[in-house]
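Note on ligand handling. Small-molecule inputs were canonicalized before submission; formal charges were left as drawn, and no protonation-state enumeration was performed. Where a ligand contained multiple stereocentres, the stereochemistry in the source SMILES was retained. For zinc ion, this procedure yielded the string shown in the input block below.
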Amino acid sequence: MSDATALEAALTGRGYRLTAARRAILAALAGSGGHVTADDLAALVHRRAPRIGRMTVYRTLDLLCDLGLLRPVYQGSGAAHYILMEDGHHHHLVCSRCGRVVEFDECALGELTEAVARRFGFRVEGHLLEFYGRCIDCRE
Ligand SMILES: [Zn+2]
Ligand SMILES: [Zn+2]
Ligand SMILES: [Zn+2]
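Structure output:
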């Protein structure tokens, strides 16, 4: 779970204005638990602030992706899910049978990140890690 103040700080810290629309969108995003499609988010925002249009929601999603605060993830053939990147990383266990997604916080990628960043001259800003397989209910 996330709270909107951290997201607001991330925006203002980069010099973006906190308009009423952005504030409502960030609150909806934080309240969603950080896994939404653009349409889910537009519906959530509409419930809080009916005057905010769909295009504003989409533009704000693009902005948050550009800033590295969100990542689009494509699962199967459906619409992209947007995932909040709170500390610059996010980890999943995904069951390929029932689709369950388990979140976990442990991260051991620090050294690997530095090694590949050095090797390719890449400035890493975050990562999204997904392990897939069978959850406890779906393993034989
Ligand atoms: Zn499963
Ligand atoms: Zn997640
Ligand atoms: Zn991590």
